[in-house]
Amino acid sequence: MSGPGAVPRRRARIVVLCPYPVGRAPSQRLKYEQYLDSWRDAGFDVSVSPFWDESAWSVLFQPGCWLRKGMGLVWGLVRRVRDLGAIRGADLVYLHLEAIPLGPPLLERWIARRGIPIVYDIDDLVYLPHSSAANPFMRFVRRLRGRGKVSELIRMAAHTVVCTEHLAAYAREWSDRVTNITSTIDTDTYRPRPHRTHTRGVVVGWSGSHSTSRYLHLLDDVLIALQRDEAIRIKVIGDGNFRIGGATVDAREWSLASEVEDLSEMDIGVYPLPGEEWVHGKSGLKALQYMALEIPTVAQRIGTNTEIISEGDNGLLAGTGDEWAERLRDLIRDPALRRRLGEAGRRTVLARYSVAVHRDRYLEVLRSALATGCPGAPLRTELSDHRSGS
Predict the structure, then answer these.
(1) pLDDT in the model for residue 298
(2) Cβ(51)–Cβ(19) below 8 Å
């Protein structure tokens, strides 16, 4: 509607409900959070409400601190009650993982009963009885999650966003409204540094979280031997307390402000994983971060890693300890190989895993959800402009 006296078209309102503060958790900041500004540019009003606040987040995956975590849980529940007003006025709810990290999806059922469409964003194989938590508090919270919660949320969602084909196959058992959008990298922020040509003091690095740093211990024997024979340096980002007995490790906590700079100090990036079903829900994020910075990558031969990395073309894959040792020695001793694989890795990210490549796919999901409405609920009629994609 236009012309004199026309009523201005209202911008569709999206409320994002997520577990963690903005800019903290990789499952958020390297996925949908990178697109929030593009949603606003496309004509949506977007507000974000995390369950855990900054105070709780700072200790959430650390041992102990039960009182602060308990208070964080209480304040998260209070925050969700306060969110009811904003949700009532929303045209769409973008839900990452779950609105409340325990119990059945009571808030989500309330949203669906009001006819507000939900885009459900899931990361990892969250339907498995597995906890990635590194402390008893988070294991306790996860045990209180209602049985069948994930499948119920998929069924009630107007659309479900997943990050691997393995997870997509599970989601399609409950709904045909499923889109696979992997983790993506902002290649304007992740810019490579000049390649180094040394063969002694090569930095072999890993980046992750306190809860996943235990996977790096799969390479303890390999790294100890390489440090002894090749004089490598071992760098760990994300778990400042990480240690390997018999090796010297430069371990530091993760910082958003220094993340790219810290990663850029690596000459080789490693991504070990155990042979568990759980890892088939991982989108290969660590590998993509390394590759975007032209850091040659050695990753476990499992899951999505085998889709991202073409062996010998844009990275290397390993399974056994001997394979890990062989591939790392080749890279340590051959700067030209490091450069070739690093440059090819970045080209892969630019072509298939960059924010620019996937920006429109998120917008398509949002518009589809608005057009579809909440399954089983009357369609909302006041947003025809957004339904048509204008």
Answers:
(1) 98
(2) yes
